[in-house]
Design a protein that fits this description.
The chain is mainly α and 290 residues long. The protein has helices at residues 3-28, 33-55, 63-87, 93-100, 103-114, 122-143, 148-173, 180-202, 212-236, 242-246, 251-263, 270-286.
Length: 290
């Protein structure tokens, strides 16, 4: 990688490694999950649209561009983030991040069907077996808890990972159609409006706790977590391969697990660690020598 690309890559991994602990503490401090995810994207979207109007650079509204906006805004942000926020109420932030490390495996499957140059090699098949085995162990870990919400939370994060994979591969195929600024502005404002609408319906009995920490969390998750991270992420699509992009999922779980252990006293069981290790190993293997 070129130094500029590597620097942005490292910044993105650092941001996404810390957002998990900020998110978890915010939920523990009384942030309704759908409202929390919706407000960060809504505010970020408004800021990005202000930039667009200032630059007088309106986004394209071709049929291809609109497909990308809607897929990314609805699948990658609204559904995927909504499920992840909701599920992280009931499971460790470190476990959520470990499950998300399986993102490259899902990307590999979608890439095989959607990108003409992708081949499902023996190495990739082995990686999928390892990743699936790890996911089953994590599910087994969830079944060991008396609370059904823990198991349900694990399943919801897994579904979120799968849903987010499709639009990511689709974007790689048509990354030259839209710019990072336009895609972020369209998709984040769209996700913010949809999530806040759903929150209004299903979280009407939950009051937002506007504590100092939750205000900090909103600023951090909106600024670095949404504006900076997603701009870098989409910018990288034009500079590195799909395999290298998906490799980003390996690093945040390590940082998130360390921070969860230090700050929230989160301790994963041997079964969860082993299952997470298989998922990460499979994800590394699928991109080895790419």
């Amino acid at each position: 990688m070129k130094p500029k690309v590597l620097l942005n890559y490292a910044i993105l991994c650092l941001i996404w490694g810390t957002t998990w602990i900020v998110l978890k503490k915010s939920l523990m401090d009384g942030t309704p999950p759908l409202f929390g995810s919706g407000i960060r994207f809504f505010v970020a979207g408004l800021i990005l649209w202000a930039v667009i109007f200032y630059k007088k650079d309106l986004p394209p509204f071709t049929s291809q561009a609109m497909r990308i906006y809607f897929q990314f805004g609805i699948m990658n942000l609204t559904i995927s983030y909504g499920l992840t926020y909701w599920a992280t109420q009931f499971i460790y932030s470190s476990l959520s991040s470990i499950i998300w490390s399986g993102f490259p495996l899902c990307v590999a499957v979608f890439s095989y069907f959607m990108l003409p140059d992708e081949i499902l090699t023996k190495k990739k098949i082995l990686s999928l077996i390892l990743g699936t085995s790890g996911a089953l162990l994590i599910l087994k870990e969830g079944m060991n808890f008396a609370e059904n919400q823990v198991l349900f939370g694990i399943i919801m994060v897994m579904i979120a990972v799968i849903i987010a994979s499709y639009p990511s591969v689709y974007l790689k195929r048509y990354s030259n159609v839209v710019s990072p600024l336009h895609l972020n502005a369209m998709s984040q404002l769209m996700a913010g409006i949809l999530l806040l609408s759903v929150s209004f319906i299903f979280e009407s009995n939950q009051q937002m706790n506007w504590s100092r920490y939750n205000i900090f969390a909103l600023v951090y998750l909106t600024g670095p977590g949404s504006l900076v991270a997603w701009f870098i992420y989409i910018w990288l699509y034009s500079h590195i391969s799909m395999a290298q992009i998906s490799y980003i999922a390996f690093f945040p779980p390590v940082l998130a697990s360390i921070l969860g252990w230090i700050i929230l006293d989160e301790t994963l069981t041997v079964l969860a660690i082993f299952g997470g290790g298989l998922v990460i190993l499979g994800a590394v293997l699928v991109n080895l020598n790419e």
